[in-house]
Structure formats: structure tokens, C-alpha cells
Design brief:
The chain is of the alpha/beta class. The chain is built from 10 helices and 13 strands. The chain folds into 2 domains: about 5-85, Winged helix-like DNA-binding domain superfamily/Winged helix DNA-binding domain (Arc Repressor Mutant, subunit A, Orthogonal Bundle); about 90-300, D-Maltodextrin-Binding Protein, domain 2 (3-Layer(aba) Sandwich). The chain has helices at about 5-20, 20-30, 35-45, 65-85, 100-120, 170-175, 200-205, 225-230, 240-250, 280-295, and strands at about 50-55, 60, 95-100, 120-130, 145, 155-160, 165-170, 190-195, 220, 235-240, 255, 265-270, 270-275. Helix 1 crosses helix 3 (about 35-45) and helix 2 (about 20-30) crosses helix 3. The longest helix has 24 residues, at about 65-85.
């Protein structure tokens, strides 16, 4: 029986297939891109068939490559899992979590004490940035809470944190000043906008059967937490998720603009992302179970 190819070649192939790049695989495995390319070529020669299609520094899998990647991905995941189980437990484990600034400040941060109390052996390292984050390119990050759109790609596991309600919100004073409001007049009311939100005022107008506004007539902010703060200060009406504004609604500093006259938008906006190979990691499992349970619980 012909001996199997080298484990180093299989590992180089799995990394390049998962990351979609020989250069990224070289960074992950601390090898040169030429070494990765050489090992993949050796693997293709061993099997006598192509595993990648190469064009413009991008690589995509052939059907045979896809078959091999599926099996290797499961195999390496199992290896990581059993090694984690057999390794002696550490006194503390670091878990790096990345999310947007608004999610960190308005939702995750206030809830983290409950996770820390439940899992004192896990040391959370939280980072934030409003820009999209590629988890497969940053080995130092374990978990990403993506915003707006669910990331896709081989080697990535993604789960929604649940559907969110996006509501037109304003301060009580602003609501009283516009007590004669009817939905058709909202195009004349100051509307606060979030430049990063995938949900726009045009979506709200369409849902409520109203003609789209001609233009933006209020200030724009680069994060949801600032939109919520501006609405509390009475600057206008915010269209924002209750995941960011529930505390202000509960304490009365924000109210639903238009009351029962208007409908709110339901949308999946936040997504839990981690490397599929880490699915058996105890610290990743514990955080995922906790945040999914917290995310599906009632906001109030």
C-alpha cells in the first residue's frame, strides 16, 4: 500500500484552503509562501491531480481539493479537540473577543461581570473596532461578534445572536413637542442617522407604507451608541436597535416615537464567529453558550 503524504504537506494544504491564500497560510504556520507552495505542489504530485486553481495571487479549491479539505478540516478539528481535553487545565485561560465599540459599550460590557463570575478561570481580553474584522487573518483573536452581515468562508462557524427590534426612538421632551405627529409627517422631523447601520430610514418608511424621504435632514454618527446618546439629548429621532437602547427605554430617557401608529423593523444584526477548528475548545464553548443564552433572553 502506498504510504500517505507527509503531515506537513497536509497541514499546509488545510491552512491554505481555509484561509484562501498561500501568503496567509505562511503567516499562520510561520513558513515562507514558497515553502507552502512547494508542499502543496508535492501533495498534488502525490495524488496526481490538481487541488487548487491559481490566479492573480488568489487560490480556489478544485472539486478534489474541496473533498480533501472537508476531511482534513474535520480531522484537524478532532486533533485540536482531543489535545485540549488531554492537556492539564490552566490556572487561567485567555480568551480574546473582538466586537464593535457600540456592542462593547451598550450590550457586552454591562453583561460581562456575569460571565466572569461564572467562569473566573477565563480571562477576557476585549477589543473593539467599527470596521469589518477578518477572524481568519488574526490568530490572536478567538471570537468575533460581527455586525451587519454574517461573515462567510471555509473554516468559519457563524451563529446569529438573534433577531433584534429596530425602533424609532426619541426623548420624552421631543415626543411632547411633536405630539401632533402623524407618520406621514416624519420626513419633516429631524432624523438621526448611523453611517455604519445596515438598516436605513428608507427601510423604515417602506415598512410603514410611506414614501421615502427626499434627503437626510439630521446629523449622522459613525456608531449606534452615539445615535442613542443624541436621541436622549433631544436632537431628533433615532432608528436604532433595542439591543443598544433598551436601558434608556427602561429608565424613560427614550420613548417610542409615534407609539402604536408605526411598526418597527425586525432584523438579525449581530453574529457570533469563531474558527471551526476551535469548536471543541472549552473556553470558546463556554463563552458561546453564555452569549447565545444571553442574546436570546428578553432585553429587559
Amino acid at each position: 500500500m502506498r504510504p500517505p503524504p507527509s503531515l506537513h504537506a497536509l497541514r499546509a494544504f488545510e491552512s491554505a484552503a481555509r484561509l484562501g491564500s498561500f501568503a496567509r497560510a505562511s503567516e499562520e504556520l510561520h513558513l515562507s509562501p514558497s515553502a507552502i507552495s512547494h508542499q502543496v505542489r508535492a501533495l498534488e504530485q502525490h495524488f496526481g491531480r490538481g487541488l487548487f486553481l491559481r490566479a492573480n495571487r488568489q487560490v480556489t479549491l478544485t472539486p478534489d481539493g474541496e473533498r480533501l479539505f472537508v476531511v482534513l478540516s474535520q480531522a484537524f478539528s478532532s486533533i485540536h479537540g482531543i489535545c485540549a481535553e488531554l492537556s492539564p487545565p490552566e490556572q487561567t485561560q485567555g480568551l480574546s473577543v473582538h466586537c464593535t465599540p457600540s456592542f462593547a459599550a451598550k450590550w457586552l460590557g454591562p453583561r460581562l461581570p456575569s460571565f466572569i463570575a461564572k467562569h473566573p478561570d477565563i480571562n477576557i481580553r476585549l477589543s473593539s473596532n467599527a470596521e469589518p474584522f477578518d477572524l481568519l487573518r488574526h490568530e490572536s483573536i478567538d471570537i468575533v461578534i460581527a455586525y451587519g452581515r454574517a461573515p462567510q468562508g471555509p473554516g468559519l462557524t457563524v451563529q446569529s445572536l438573534g433577531q433584534e427590534e429596530l425602533v424609532a426612538l426619541c426623548s420624552p421632551e421631543f415626543a411632547r413637542a411633536n405630539a401632533r405627529f402623524v407618520p406621514e409627517q416624519l420626513d419633516k422631523v429631524i432624523r438621526l442617522d448611523s453611517s455604519f447601520s445596515p438598516v436605513r430610514w428608507a427601510d423604515w418608511f417602506a415598512l410603514n407604507g410611506l414614501p421615502a424621504p427626499g434627503s437626510q435632514n439630521g446629523p449622522t454618527f459613525d456608531r449606534g451608541s452615539l445615535v442613542v446618546a443624541a436621541a436622549v439629548q433631544g436632537l431628533g429621532v433615532a432608528l436604532e436597535t433595542l439591543r443598544f437602547a433598551q436601558a434608556e427605554v427602561d429608565d424613560g430617557s427614550l420613548v417610542r416615537f409615534g407609539g402604536e401608529q408605526v411598526r418597527s423593523i425586525q432584523r438579525d444584526l449581530h453574529f457570533l464567529c469563531y474558527r471551526t477548528r476551535d469548536q471543541n475548545s472549552a473556553k470558546v464553548q463556554k463563552f458561546c453558550q453564555w452569549i447565545l443564552a444571553s442574546g436570546s433572553a428578553p432585553s429587559n
